Amino acid sequence: MTADGGSPAEVEGARHGRMPRRSAGRSAITLIASALAVLLVAGAAVAAFVVVDLYRGLQQRPPVELESERMLEGVPDIGAMEGGLTFFLAGSDKRPEDGAFGDPDEESGVLNDVNMLLHISQDHSHVEVVSFPRDLLVDVPECPDPSGAEGETLAPMYGVKLNSVLHYGGVGCVVATIEQLTGLTIPVAGVVEFYGVASLAEAVGGVEVCLAEPIDDPWSGLQLDAGTHSITGMTALAFLRSRHGVGDGSDLGRISNQQAFLSSLMRTIQGDGVLSDPVKLYAIAKAVLGNMQLSSYLQDPVTLISIARTLQDVDLSKIVFVQYPTAYTSDFGAVVPTESADALNAALVADQPLQLAAEATTDATYGTVPGEQPSAEASAPPTDAAPDAPPTDAPGEPPAEPPPTETPAQVLPDDITGQTGAEVRCSTANDR
């Protein structure tokens, strides 16, 4: 989900532009459900195992501390969702110790090559996921030194690539940088590494992706024929890591590929009942806690499951994946924000739903192409039941409250690309 498997020089100096060339747990629950007595006796034991198992994984990875996390003190369980939530996820290219992706001492730069912001609105009616290019030039504010004594800080930096900030100051410093860039307050965050991506894909039972053309990328190991595939584990990891094999070979093309995957993931977890299945929710929480470094507030499986369930009823068309708008520098070695970033930042801060401009993504040179969209019949709600009659006020009762007014969507400038959770888009091969 991060680096391209190249040498250290290629990792540090990789150009952003175009390159020149069912489980045992399920079986146990089925058996338990066969008799009420067994259910009553074994239920507590299963629950105890789940809690112990989750927290064992939790203890293996220390939490990260964020300055903005203090705003969550005293807030009730996020499952009640009295408000929204903004979460930042960094994908690190740190190689695992087993050497499966290269020598961890020789080839790992600990770069945050993937940077995503998840924003759940205050009323839970819409969700935005913003991807920030790894080679985006940013100013880094003064931030706490994660390896120093308490109170020690790191000096600010100016005009550096975003993917260098994790190595410099940890995820807290990356979050502070994104807060300064967008104007948002980000109270929770996490870092995921290679095997974490594979585990998450397995936890949901696979994700369906569409390829417009065959893709053969020796850098990431992705080899898939054209058509639709259900991918999981290491294949899903290769799909998300692939840069040389997709689009125009740039990180912008890879982001579009990742958005197509995440959109399909949302359709999967809503359509397959993942968010209402305690076994799958447990598997997801276990994969997250065992494979991610999380800020303190997220070090609780109940919180993770509650956050996931807030996505259960969000209209897929109101889940919008966007790429932070950028333009190349003169040497094509990095990107900088365009003026359109101001409109995106303002909409996020104002908690407005986002609407992509027509054809913005299709016209991009580095993106995906439209796939076969779900039919209207397939996506429409069941119509067996008669429509509810309009409410009537009983005698002496106060008038019924009118339905809440929906917040109008912010139509984004046409250089901001992305897609909704309801759209199917297909990855294209890099033939350059």
TrEMBL record:
**What InterPro entries does the annotation carry?**
LytR/CpsA/Psr_CW_biosynth (IPR050922), LytR_CpsA_psr (IPR004474)
Describe the location of the Cell envelope-related transcriptional attenuator domain by residue ranges: 112-270
Residue stretches of biased makeup (Pro residues): 388-406
Transmembrane region(s): 28-52
Q: Which residues form a coiled coil?
A: none
Bias type Low complexity, positions: 374-387
Instruction: Return the annotated region ranges for Disordered.
Output: 1-20, 365-432
List the keywords (alphabetical): Membrane, Transmembrane, Transmembrane helix
The highest taxon in the source lineage is: Bacteria
Which Pfam families does the entry link to? LytR_cpsA_psr
Q: Which family does it belong to?
A: Belongs to the LytR/CpsA/Psr (LCP) family.
Q: What name is this protein filed under?
A: LytR family transcriptional regulator
